[in-house]
Design goal:
heterodimer, A: mainly beta, Jelly Rolls, five-stranded mixed sheet, 1 helix, 37% strand, globular, B: 273 residues, mainly beta, eight-stranded antiparallel sheet, 2 helices, 16 strands
Chain lengths: 169, 273
């Protein structure tokens, strides 16, 4: 039995925490860009198998597992104070969906993440926030079964009404 | 390296304490928030409890023992609680086996796969600069059948990891035994179930996930993976507890305890029951 000195133990904790976040797996490419709000984006029919193998073995949103067989990524440009809701349904796999901020790296800021353990994930509600580039993730975190396949990505029309002009005559 | 030396890993006292105290009160855990060194009165190198997390030693233990460690985290994103062992030899163990028991029955509705938390990590002193220095991370994940997830360092993978999901088998007691055997070494190609027997050299990960009451054998792991982890220096620090949880896990299971017991680590010999 060893009794360690405090400084050694604390150093080990610090090193572990620092090093564990040093690496980021980035998507190989996106499956396209989605028309930006305030127009409600059109629904998308996709298939995730074989896409973005860089994510295989990695995780997102603090530890949610990426599919080992394919993950889809869509880029979307959000305006200031614009929100969004999106839902994925699939008969082929159990979808897990998320919105990442800034980049498609697995350790990017997780705005929202959702799964229900069924063939439908969402609606993932993206709160009104700052403008910028965001990335919608469509994957399967179950670690079993097909973990990829055909799906439908749809959007709900809950986008805020933007005041374009206002005047008092 | 001494081939058949059982590592004097202090955290194994979790199990030993439970065994020896079957008819007596459990040891009193330090339950105050923050870092305590040494932990468990010297039973482990150090421990850490976040402000909204809990750590305790409760009865009954797992595997028929008297006492077990009980860990819970809260809703905060940095909530974590763990005991830590620093005793592996520097710069790290070229081969490292670990075994522990886990019980998840206090997690109500542990039913969705994004509910996941790390229960054990093996951290190395050095690793390739672009990758994490964890040579192995073990997670629990919810689901219709909850699973154990292994994240194993592998320089052949773009992410630096291979992940393996093992659905938990049926268990009358709800107690499961997890054992791992990780050897540092090179491999030209990574391959699932490619090293049922650990080779004399080369990267290899073997794992066993069984009902705690069921026997297991060195020759018949649940699975294996040929990996290229030659860039990692070998296990130097082990963390056991709940070192992080996803938002879905923290939301659904704040304050609910995961029981971990009977940790044993060695260099060479199979551990089993």
């Amino acid at each position: 039995m060893k009794i360690q000195k405090t400084c050694l133990s604390l150093l080990a904790i610090g090193c572990a925490i620092a090093s564990s976040s040093a690496f980021a797996a980035t998507c190989n490419g996106t499956q396209g860009s989605i028309a930006a709000p305030p127009a409600t984006p059109a629904a998308i029919a996709g298939s995730s198998c074989g896409n973005n193998p860089n994510y295989n073995g990695s995780s997102f949103c603090g530890g949610v597992l990426f599919s080992n067989t394919g993950t889809d990524v869509y880029q979307i440009q959000m305006g200031n104070s614009q929100g969004l809701q999106f839902t994925v349904t699939s008969a082929a796999f159990t979808p897990d969906i998320a919105l990442l901020a800034t980049s498609c790296a697995d350790n990017s800021t997780c705005v929202v993440e959702s799964s229900s353990g069924t063939g439908t994930a969402g609606p993932a509600v993206v709160p009104n926030g700052s403008s910028g580039t965001f990335f919608i993730i469509v994957t399967d975190s179950t670690g079993t079964g097909a973990q990829c396949g055909a799906y439908n990505l749809s959007f709900a029309g809950t986008l805020p009404v933007k005041l374009q002009d206002f005047s008092v005559q | 390296m001494n081939s058949f030396t059982m590592k004097a890993l202090a955290v194994a006292v979790l199990g030993l304490a439970g065994t020896s105290m079957a008819m007596a009160a459990c040891p009193t855990a330090v339950t105050t928030s923050g870092s305590t060194t040494p932990g468990g009165g010297g039973a482990w190198s150090t421990q850490f409890i976040a402000t909204d997390a809990t750590f305790n030693i409760v009865s009954p233990g797992l595997g028929g023992t008297g006492c077990t460690a009980a860990f819970s985290i809260g809703a905060l994103s940095n909530s974590r609680v763990f005991v830590q062992d620093n005793s592996p030899a520097a710069p790290g163990e070229p081969r490292y086996r670990a075994r522990f028991l886990v019980k998840l029955s206090n997690l109500t509705s542990f039913s969705v796969s994004n509910q996941t938390a790390i229960i054990m990590r093996e951290n190395d002193t050095t690793s390739p600069a672009q990758f994490s220095s964890d040579q192995l991370v073990v997670r629990i994940a919810g689901g219709a059948t909850p699973s154990i997830r292994f994240f194993v360092a592998d320089g052949n993978a773009a992410s630096g990891l291979v992940s393996i999901a093992v659905p938990l088998p049926s268990s009358a007691s709800g107690e499961y035994r997890v054992e791992t055997d990780l050897q540092i070494g090179a491999a030209a190609t990574s391959q699932a179930n490619g090293c049922t027997t650990t080779p004399a050299s080369g990267g290899c990960f073997r794992y066993w996930v069984t009902d705690a009451a069921a026997a297991s054998a060195d020759a018949t792991p649940t699975g294996s993976y040929v990996i290229n982890n030659s860039g990692w220096s070998g296990a130097k620090t082990l963390f056991l507890g709940l070192t992080t949880g996803t938002a879905a896990f923290r939301t659904a299971h704040a304050g609910q305890t995961v029981l971990l017991d009977e940790l044993d680590t060695r260099r060479q010999t199979f551990i089993g029951q």
